[in-house]
Design a protein that fits this description.
This protein is 41% helix and 21% strand. It is an alpha+beta fold. A 4-stranded antiparallel sheet has the order 3-2-1-4, covered by helices on one side. Strand 1 and strand 2 form a beta hairpin. The protein is globular, with a radius of gyration of 17 Å.
Length: 113
Amino acid sequence: MKTELIMLSALLFVFTLVISCEKSRSLCGGNDPKNELSWLNQEISRLNALNKCYSISRSAYNKQTVFIISNCEANINRVPVLYNCDGTVMNLSDVDYQNLKFTGSIELIWKSN
């Protein structure tokens, strides 16, 4: 019984890895968007030079991959900026931001130190 439970747990773990890898491949930038997308790599370098707290996450919005750049400074309250796959800022209205619903999980790609 214990062996069967261990085997089942291992099988579920492998299945979860396969599903998450497939999902990452289906999103713009694949499994390594920092290196796959030159604009994202340049944006990371630019943000890193500012010596402030920023993060970049990836998700899906309106059936497309989006990259979310957020300021994570404790005393700054800013609206995150969304970029599409080619690095163009998505100009969302105030209403769009208020009703912003991502259709996938939000995956942290990078965070400054």
